[in-house]
Amino acid sequence: MKIVVITEKPFAENAVKGIREILEKAGHEVVMIEKYKKKEDVIERIKDADGVIVRSDKIDEEIIKAGEKVKIIVRAGAGYDNIDIEACNQGKIVVMNTPGQNRNGVAELCIGMMIFGFRKGFKEGKGRELKDKTLGICGCGYVGKRVKEIAEGIGMKIKVYDPFITTENQVKKIEELFEECQVISLHLPLTKETKGKIGYELIKKLPYGGMICNTARKEIIDEEEKKCGEYIRCANGTFNDKKLTVATWRSLNIKKMHSSK
Predict the structure, then answer these.
(1) Does residue 260 lie in a domain region?
(2) What sequence ranges are listed for the domain D-isomer specific 2-hydroxyacid dehydrogenase catalytic (predicted)?
(3) pTM over 0.90
(4) Which residues pair with residue 74 across a beta bridge?
(5) Could you tell me if 85 and 117 lie in one domain?
């Protein structure tokens, strides 16, 4: 089989080496499509592929139809919202993901964003500790569980919202999480149900000085409802604005609703 690896942003050298060793040992041909500039480059080279490995690259209907021989697409990561699942179903293409492989890296980033936020960018004489603060984990899968472990290790209290699992310190409604926690960490997949799920009505329930940390998908937060303000801070590694980067801070307009506290 011919396996095409599509990565505009290349894998680490060790990852590429591992992919090649495993697939070539099994008798497959491996073709790397890295740092490509146009979708047409992908379309041209996928035409005779039997399988595809992809990161966050967009695999739309046009690309899928070009790969007439493709039988399987593997997403190197958990979220597969970059792949047109309906088009794959129509083409009888199997789609698989690899959840949990980057859980520690994402969890460490998440905790680092929290520390940076509470220490006000490490300005001298300012900031707060995370110890004894209550962390609300929204979505407790591989990454959420790892965040929970690290947060407990530095003395944070934990509450969890996840309708698909049963765990300790669990709340039944997402509103409870925002009302009872100083920090919210989002670990939701992007689906029709979760798109724009975190909006103004939820955000305003956070206590004074609260923070949202989003290392999931940018579309989960309804950015249209974010206005200029100074009460709630949002650390979002996935903002829609391409000029912003990981750990870029934006204020949310919670107006004066916490002014009496």
Answers:
(1) no
(2) 19-181
(3) no
(4) 53, 96
(5) no
Phi and psi torsions of 104, nearest 5°: -70, -40
Q: Which amino acid is at 23?
A: L
Note down pLDDT in tens along the chain; length 261 residues: 999 999 998 888 999 999 999 999 999 999 999 999 899 999 999 999 999 999 989 999 999 999 999 999 999 988 898 999 999 999 999 999 998 888 999 999 999 999 988 887 777 677 889 999 999 999 999 999 999 999 999 999 999 999 998 989 999 999 999 999 999 999 998 888 999 888 878 888 888 778 889 888 888 888 665 443 334 566 665 544 433 333 333 444 333 334 333
What contacts 219, CB < 8 A, 6 or more positions away? Answer: 190, 195, 196, 240
Residues 239, 218 contacting (CB under 8 angstroms): yes
Continuous H helices in 32-171: 39-46, 61-66, 85-90, 103-118, 142-153
Indicate whether 87 and 108 sit together in one domain: no
CATH classification of the domain holding 166:
3.40.50.720
Q: What is the CA radius of gyration of the chain?
A: 21
- Domain of 184 in residue numbering reads as 103-252
Burial 26-46 (b: 16+ CB within 10 A, else e): eeeebebbeeeeeeeebeebb
